């Protein structure tokens, strides 16, 4: 019996590692396109607006797909949802590489290439948007309830690592050929698909072929924390959007200098976020209450640094502090959501959360850039006030979490 339990523990750890690797792969697939597509698009004759529209349309359908996937996951099961998402990931990336290759060889006109890429990116967005909520639900329901914050933190860190690796892998693979990143990343996804298919088993839920009961999210106790999650992502994408403007305006750097220095600052932010989620949260087993307290504290300090510290060191310091803030807030807010939802609501909760995060990700750059046009300090004042409001809202709603845990 002891031997059987030991095998189950090993299988559970292997499944966790494979699924977290899938999340890293999704992060790579989402981010490498920003590095690979622009130079190829220009090479085949697409305008910058059309290149951007391909990425934007894909992001829109990711948001739509994430919202729809919750009910689908509840009905067909998490494993089928993950496998379907990974297969659509492989197929669309492979075909995208093929289409771009044919266009570079002048076998396809630019106009045809553009519409094919839009179609492929739509399928890509709709397909992979089910992977994150399915994996989150699997890990939450198969994990230790007392270590849920650590589980959520590992999910965020894995995706963040993928977002960092994507551009780096694209730059490396592009030295082979412009379309090589698409094929290499698709090949990595094929390997993960096979590992999921052969090793990962879902012991708590397979499928329910009946329509799950509807959920009124406007009255659900997790609603305040869904709104908080949207704000967290809005802040991340908004800061990323305006930071290039701020560096260029404050220091008078050229486009090349700005891009280089911005890359360093962004790397510091990402690394600090990953460090918190991969090391601090699991080590100290911090609960959602403490995570949100710490996240808001570092968020406000970061905004003060952005406003008051005029040097480049000050900017990097503020970005690092903001990365720490995100490292605490992301697992804190989502852990609170999962505690407030029933087990049969977890997949739809994860789906709605992913969709709202997509909304936050899409609206953050527009909102923060608009505020920046009024005055360079207003976006940081806005975020500081928003995080304080988030904190006050949390103080009001945290009793629900404590009651649910008890």
From TrEMBL:
Alphabetical list of Gene3D superfamilies matching this protein: MFS general substrate transporter like domains
Q: What is this protein called?
A: MFS transporter
Annotated TM spans: 17-37, 49-70, 82-101, 113-140, 152-174, 180-200, 221-242, 262-281, 290-309, 315-340, 352-372, 378-397
- Work out whether the entry's keyword set contains Transmembrane: yes
Q: Native species of this protein?
A: Marinomonas phaeophyticola
Q: Which SUPFAM superfamilies match?
A: MFS general substrate transporter
- Database matches in InterPro entries: MFS, MFS_dom, MFS_trans_sf
Locate the Major facilitator superfamily (MFS) profile domain: which residues? Answer: 15-402
- List the keywords (alphabetical): Membrane, Transmembrane, Transmembrane helix
């Amino acid at each position: 019996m002891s031997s059987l339990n030991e095998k189950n523990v090993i299988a559970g750890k292997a499944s966790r590692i494979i699924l977290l690797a899938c999340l890293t792969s999704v992060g790579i697939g989402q981010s490498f396109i920003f590095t690979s597509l622009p130079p190829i698009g220009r090479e085949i004759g697409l305008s910058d607006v059309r290149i951007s529209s391909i990425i934007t349309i894909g992001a829109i359908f990711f948001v739509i797909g994430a919202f729809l996937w919750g009910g689908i996951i509840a009905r067909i099961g998490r494993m089928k949802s993950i496998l379907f998402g990974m297969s659509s990931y492989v197929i669309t990336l492979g075909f995208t590489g093929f289409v771009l290759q044919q266009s570079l060889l002048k076998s396809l006109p630019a106009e045809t290439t553009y519409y094919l890429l839009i179609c492929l990116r739509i399928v890509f967005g709709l397909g992979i948007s089910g992977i994150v909520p399915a994996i989150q639900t699997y890990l939450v329901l198969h994990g230790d309830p007392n270590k849920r914050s650590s589980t959520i933190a590992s999910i965020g860190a894995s995706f963040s690592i993928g977002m960092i690796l994507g551009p780096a892998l694209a730059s490396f693979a592009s030295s082979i050929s412009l379309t090589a990143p698409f094929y290499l990343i698709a090949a990595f996804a094929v390997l993960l698909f096979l590992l999921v298919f052969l090793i990962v088993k879902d012991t708590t839920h397979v499928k329910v072929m009946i329509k799950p009961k509807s959920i009124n999210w406007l009255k659900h106790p997790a609603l305040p924390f869904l709104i908080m999650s949207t704000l967290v992502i809005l802040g991340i994408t908004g800061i990323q959007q305006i930071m290039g403007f701020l560096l260029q305006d404050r220091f008078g750097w050229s486009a090349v200098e700005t891009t280089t220095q911005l890359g360093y600052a962004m790397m510091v932010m990402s690394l600090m976020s990953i460090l918190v989620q991969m090391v601090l949260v699991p080590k100290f087993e911090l609960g959602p209450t403490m995570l949100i307290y710490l996240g808001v504290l570092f968020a406000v300090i970061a905004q003060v640094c952005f406003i008051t510290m005029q040097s480049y060191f000050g900017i990097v310091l503020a970005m690092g502090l903001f990365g720490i803030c995100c490292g605490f807030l992301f697992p804190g807010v989502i852990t609170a959501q999962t505690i407030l939802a029933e087990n049969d609501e977890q997949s739809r909760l994860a789906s709605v959360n992913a969709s709202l995060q997509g909304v936050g990700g899409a609206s953050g750059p527009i909102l923060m850039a608009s505020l920046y046009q009024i005055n360079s300090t207003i976006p940081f004042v806005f975020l500081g006030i928003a995080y304080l409001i988030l904190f006050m809202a949390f103080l009001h709603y945290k009793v629900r979490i404590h009651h649910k845990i008890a």
